[in-house]
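Narrative of accomplishments. A recurring question from our advisory board has been how the design workflow behaves on a single, concrete structure rather than in aggregate. To address it, we present the structure tokens for one chain from the evaluation set, followed by the sequence designed for it. No filtering or post-editing was applied between the two.
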């Protein structure tokens, strides 16, 4: 599963819960739903295209993992 961040169009903010329910029906597992139109969650890579195709979705990006070396490690 991929960790994703979805931004919903301002036009649909009044129906945010309905939009979130529709995305869940497609296979999204929501971890956070913010009233300003951002949804974070997890989805299988196979359904990312379906989620992007929703007219309410402005953007869908995959979260990237960053690692920071310990403070005592050599400079790279």
């Amino acid at each position: 599963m991929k960790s994703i961040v979805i931004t919903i169009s301002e036009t649909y903010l009044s129906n945010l819960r309905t939009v979130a329910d529709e995305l869940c029906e497609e296979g999204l597992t929501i971890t956070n739903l913010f009233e300003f139109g951002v949804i974070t969650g997890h989805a299988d890579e196979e359904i990312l295209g379906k989620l992007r195709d929703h007219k309410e979705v402005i953007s869908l990006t995959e979260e990237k993992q960053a690692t920071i070396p310990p403070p005592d490690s050599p400079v790279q």
